[in-house]
Design a protein that fits this description.
The structure holds 3 protein chains of 3 kinds. By secondary structure, chain A is an alpha/beta fold. Chain A has 13 helices and 18 strands. In chain A, the strands form 3 sheets. In chain A, strands 1, 2, 3, 4, 5, 16, 17 and 18 form an 8-stranded mixed sheet that branches. An 8-stranded parallel sheet of chain A has the order 6-7-8-9-10-13-14-15. In chain A, strands 11-12 form a two-stranded parallel ribbon. By secondary structure, chain B is of the alpha/beta class. Chain B has one domain: 3-Layer(aba) Sandwich (Rossmann fold). In chain B, helix 2 links the parallel strand 2 and strand 3. The longest helix of chain B is centred in the first third of the chain and has 18 residues. By secondary structure, chain C is an alpha/beta fold. Chain C folds into 2 domains: 143 residues, Rossmann fold (3-Layer(aba) Sandwich); 151 residues, 3-Layer(aba) Sandwich (Rossmann fold). In chain C, helix 2 packs across helix 12. The longest helix of chain C has 19 residues. Classes of the chains: A alpha/beta, B alpha/beta, C alpha/beta. Chains in contact: A-C, B-C. At the B-C interface, loops of B face helix 1, helix 12 and helix 13 of C.
Chain lengths: 433, 178, 306
């Protein structure tokens, strides 16, 4: 590790300090020591002559490394789909410096041993920071609380039964209440499994057209409404995972107005694709929650724009080819999302939906704050977790070149604009194009 | 470029001659039935039957035969032809069946027609009458009654137009494009 | 008509459908002969890949295939390696290795015919996929309707029953609209789509919905729907949506009653209607054979089979 790094002339965007301008960043021993804008008065403290490694970022954006609140690293148990090593390599290729991994591994991360195992693996093989999300209930069965306290102490930064909901409202109430003792967040996979039934895509015009069983928007919305009520009642911290419907955005918007301790994320596929993409039954389009209508897609953008939706998470869900090469309704749900998230998100800026600072806030600063992580910032003294990207560079998605083991992407062959050129974690260059 | 080979009058004379030949060769109209091959042969069969009726004051049964399902080039064709009506409202077993077609070329249609006919019964004899024989046989098939022999190049086309289809009766040779 | 597969009725234009029906009408003549077989598709091999038991449809296809002189292989789920957990992909790759020309497939999952067409070099005929489509049923229904009504323009056709789970309803809706008929859906709200497809009128009341219709297509009600609370009991269903003589009287006098079979007497249709003079169900069976022959014949065009 070079002790000193100087990133020069980049367009620095740091929502945590409301910075948006050309400048230099100096790094020493893995920490940011100075950030100077060209228009500012201060002179750079670190210069090339100091023996620092100089990175010329002219024409590029320099931002806090992205924080993905929602990934599936599949280890332990599903190493044929992904490992902590491959998943984090995919993360840093996408500009992510922190990945929060969901507990639906095998065994489930529902106790501190598994949490410790994941953290050890990540320390040994991880290309970026890894923070586990613990299961709310034992075995994610929705019946008994898992050891939330112990997992919190060991390093879990939030709790979720992601992949399935906590259907039992009493258990969810207890989770909110118990979690308060640790100031931790309950991340809701909002899906009423009875309403979702055996649906395999969004219920609407497209599902009628394609002859597939539908999952109504209500399956998501009734659970969000329930969790809002429970969070309000208990005073617990609620975060809604993978928001996908217009009604959900409206519920969250109102809850925020009412002072509920609630945050929410959506994923690039929900603001990029609609249910019409299911035409032809490409199993890469099979995801849960399902791709929704054009109206829902517009609501995701509006929700991001007005801050109702706080964060963009990938819900990176890598699968083996065999898990997707089958009947549409039998194929497993999920999209390998880490390597396409930035380019898809930058489209929001190009389309005028978000400003660049808003986008960086949603990708880095806000998710770190939600989970209480000291990242997503370029403030002096912070860890030098940095993404350097070219917002204009064009490239074509080729799933076979993914670093992730999961080649399951709906975007294979898409022409993309915007690419990560370099990623630093704790001042180490962990990825460079 | 087209060249007229037969006009209305020529066709009328040929129909008349073939009708006479059929009666002569079969020693009268008894046991004869005519089967026209879709599409051109169907109209010609009707005309010959009409002519036989005026000559012999006897009706011979007339049927129509579609050979699409018996063709040997089905798997080579991009687009399959509509299967037209086969209408043979009489038993052909033991009968003298005269197949009638407009143009005899490779002989493959006649082979298909004979196969199709066999699926309707066992005729005593099958004879063949054609308006034009243009040569270039690919199978050992010969017509019993020929309206006119016309030597052609393989790429040329014979176009038979009949008034039943809304044209003036005539037969043209369409020259191959250079 | 030059196409390789018949997967959805959406692929067929008005002229395509009429061409298939015209040819099917000729095949009906062939079926009346003593020798009912023609050599049209001699040398072609058809695999009937049925992942759902369906004696009627499979038998109809098999006879149609044999009448056209194809070699027929039946690949039924119970007697195959599928029950041993072989993936669909592996199964079709194995079948492909035999060098077949057609796969006729029935599967409980929507989109399987598309999957086979994508991964296998054969002509695919959809014999029913999930709750999606059953195009040959729509074609045989169209032939039956054409025989009775002459044309489709302006015809009012009511489809009654379990619309959302019915591939017969979906394929018929698409085909009939292409042909110029007007389609109504009649059924309990639980068995109707949450919104009407473009051009379709939906009725909860069968009395209201049958008013003035030319054609009634009854759908089979499956018991498993009752267990999933789509309706409370078969008695409650029959009481409100069963086709009785009185309800049939709401339709035009010369209306015909169709049913893809097998019928549940006393559940979706009263016995006296099932046996009544307006019923054309057996004609549908004969037409099924002729239509399937026609489809096989038209799909075997040379370009992809040479």
């Amino acid at each position: 590790m070079p002790e000193k790094i100087l990133i020069q002339n980049g367009h620095i965007v740091d929502p945590s300090q409301l910075i948006d301008g050309i400048g230099d960043i100096s790094i020493e021993n893995g920490k940011i020591v100075a950030l100077e804008l060209k228009s500012g008065k201060a002179k750079s403290k670190a210069r090339a002559s100091d023996g620092a490694k100089v990175i010329d970022a002219t024409g590029l954006y320099v931002t806090p490394g992205f924080v993905d609140m929602h990934v599936h690293l599949r280890e332990p148990g599903f190493e044929h789909k992904e490992t902590i090593a491959t998943g984090t390599k995919a993360a840093v290729k996408g500009g992510f410096t922190t990945a929060c991994c969901m507990p639906n591994t095998s065994p489930v991360n529902d106790n501190s041993e598994i949490t410790a195992f994941i953290l050890d693996k990540a320390a040994e093989a991880g290309a970026c920071r890894v923070f586990p999300i613990g299961a709310i209930t034992k075995g994610q069965q929705g019946e008994e609380l898992a050891e939330i306290g112990n997992m919190h102490d060991t390093g879990c930064v939030g709790f979720s039964d992601d992949g399935r909901p906590v259907m039992n409202s009493l258990i969810m109430r207890r989770a909110f209440e118990y979690g308060k003792a640790f100031g931790t967040t309950m991340i809701s996979h909002a899906e009423d499994i009875h309403l979702a039934g055996d649906g395999v895509m969004h219920e609407g015009e497209a599902s009628i057209r394609f002859g597939l069983r539908g999952i109504p928007a209500a399956a998501e919305e009734v659970m969000i409404a329930r969790d809002i009520i429970l969070a309000q009642m208990t005073g617990g911290k609620l975060h809604i995972a993978h928001v996908s419907t217009k009604g959900s955005v409206a519920l969250i918007r109102k809850a925020k107005k009412d002072g509920v301790n609630i945050t929410a994320e959506t994923c690039p596929h929900y603001f990029t694709l609609t249910d019409m993409a299911v035409e032809g039954y490409n199993t890469a389009m099979r995801v849960n929650p399902p791709l929704r209508s054009a109206e829902d897609m517009a609501a995701m953008k509006a929700g991001l724009a007005d801050g109702t939706i706080d964060a963009i998470a990938t819900d990176h869900a890598p699968h083996h080819r065999d898990d997707k090469l089958m009947e549409f309704d039998k194929a497993l749900c999920g999209i390998s999302g880490l390597e396409t998230a930035l380019a898809l998100s930058l489209q929001l800026v190009r389309d005028g939906v978000l400003t660049m600072p808003q986008l960086v806030n949603a990708l880095a600063t806000k998710p770190a704050r939600i989970l209480g992580l000291p990242y997503g910032t370029l403030a002096a003294g912070a860890a030098a977790d940095i993404a350097i990207f070219d917002p204009n560079r064009t490239w074509t998605v080729d799933a076979q070149t993914f670093v992730s083991k999961g080649k399951n992407t709906p975007f294979d062959g898409w022409k993309m604009q915007g690419q990560t050129l370099m990623t630093l974690v704790e001042g180490n260059i962990v990825y460079s194009l | 470029m087209a060249k007229e080979l037969l006009n209305r009058k020529d066709i009328e004379r040929i129909i008349s001659r073939i009708a006479h030949e059929i009666i002569e060769k079969n020693k009268g109209p008894e046991g004869i039935c005519l089967v026209g091959i879709q599409r051109g042969g169907v109209h010609l069969a009707a005309r010959i039957a009409e002519k036989i009726k005026t000559i012999e004051s006897a009706s011979v049964p007339v049927g129509s035969l579609d050979i699409s399902l018996y063709r040997d080039d089905l798997s080579l064709r991009k687009d399959h032809p509509v299967v037209r009506k086969t209408d043979i409202p009489f038993d052909i077993s033991g009968k003298k069946v005269v197949l009638i077609d407009d143009v005899l070329f490779t002989g493959r249609s006649i082979r298909a027609a004979m196969d199709a006919l066999m699926d309707y019964g066992r005729p005593a004899v099958i004879q063949l009458a054609v308006l034009i024989d243009r040569g270039h046989r690919e199978l050992p098939i010969r017509a019993d009654y020929v309206g006119k022999n016309i030597p052609t190049a393989k790429k040329e086309k014979i176009d038979v137009q009949l008034q039943e289809d809304g044209f003036e009766d005539n037969v043209q040779l369409i020259k191959a494009k250079e | 008509m030059t196409r390789k597969h018949l997967i959805t009725m959406r692929d067929l234009g008005k002229a395509d459908i009429h061409q298939i029906l015209d040819t099917a009408a000729s095949f009906k003549d062939v079926l009346k002969r003593d020798i009912k077989k023609v050599p049209a598709l001699r040398g072609k091999t058809v695999v009937n890949l049925f992942y759902e038991p369906s004696t009627r449809t499979r038998t109809s296809f098999e006879i149609a295939e044999k009448r056209l002189s194809t070699d027929v292989v039946n690949f039924a789920v119970a007697s195959s390696s599928v029950t041993k957990g072989e993936s669909l992909f592996d199964t079709i790759k194995n079948i492909e290795a035999y060098g077949v020309d057609f796969v006729v497939v029935r599967h409980s999952s929507t989109g399987v015919p598309n999957f086979i067409a994508e991964h296998m070099d054969v002509s695919v005929i959809n014999a029913g996929d999930g709750i999606n489509e059953h195009p040959t049923q729509a074609l045989l229904d169209a032939l039956t309707i054409r025989e009775h009504k002459g044309s489709f323009e302006g015809l009012e056709v009511a489809i009654v029953g379990d619309i959302i789970h019915s591939r017969v309803a979906r394929s018929n809706m698409i085909g009939l609209q292409t042909l110029g008929a007007k389609v109504r859906y009649i059924g309990p709200p639980t068995l109707l789509p949450p919104q009407a497809p473009p051009g379709v009128k939906m009725y909860y009341s069968i009395e209201e919905g049958l008013k003035g219709v030319d054609v009634i297509i009854m759908l089979r009600i499956q018991m498993e729907r009752m267990n999933k609370s789509f309706f409370p009991t078969t008695a409650d269903y029959f009481c409100h949506w069963g086709l009785t003589k009185d309800r049939l009287a709401m339709a035009k006098k010369d209306a015909i009653v169709m049913h893809p079979g097998p019928m549940n007497r006393g559940i979706e249709i009263a016995s006296d209607v099932a046996d009544g003079p307006q019923n054309v169900i057996l004609q549908q069976v004969t037409n099924g054979l002729a239509v399937r022959m026609s489809v096989l014949y038209h799909l075997s065009g040379g370009e992809h089979h040479a």
